[in-house]
Amino acid sequence: MTGKQKLGVIGGAFALLCAGAVASPTLAQSSLAMLDSLDKGEWQLRFRDGSPARKVCVRSGRELIQLRHSASGCNRFVVEDGRNEVTVQYTCPGDGYGRTNVRKEGPALVQIDSQGIVGGRPFQFSAEARRIGSCQ
């Protein structure tokens, strides 16, 4: 086997490995314990671009991952699962995809950065989310 052939085989194997990691959500399972540690209840999102504030009922913390995609059939891939920060990439068949980073400043305060495509249009936002009370 020549050097070029070996490189092609290695490259092909790497591509298959990467494709399997993206296509198989079981490879991407993580605890996302940081999100579980957030206070449950109603949270207010304040967007840095001046968009109107939005309220979200947080039951598990995972509601903060897909703020622009409400579909439940999305596949998620955990990129980072730290004690104070998580990053999740997700794909929603037929509706687009996104990548969200949530950084915990306290049990009732997080910073969120998200970007992706929804309904064929790009989105990007940064927001601060703060617990404001019980869910209505």
Automatic annotation (TrEMBL):
Sorted alphabetically, the keyword list is: Signal
Where does the secretion signal sit in this chain? 1-28
**What name does the UniProt record give this protein?**
DUF3617 family protein
Supply the source organism for this entry: Qipengyuania nanhaisediminis
